[in-house]
Design goal:
single chain, 39 residues, mainly alpha, 1 helix, hydrolase, ATP-binding, ATP-dependent helicase HrpA
Length: 39
């Protein structure tokens, strides 16, 4: 472990600097079971 960051602002600054997304991922819609594809 190189660092332990507890502050939200610190994490956001680090992610921005690295060019990584800071927003949460969106949930994908649920899919049916694979067996339904053959009907």
């Amino acid at each position: 472990m190189l660092a332990y960051v507890k502050e939200v602002g610190g994490v956001r600054v680090i992610l921005d600097h690295l060019g990584l997304p800071t927003a949460c991922a969106r949930w994908a819609p649920a899919r049916g079971p694979p067996q339904a594809a053959w009907c």
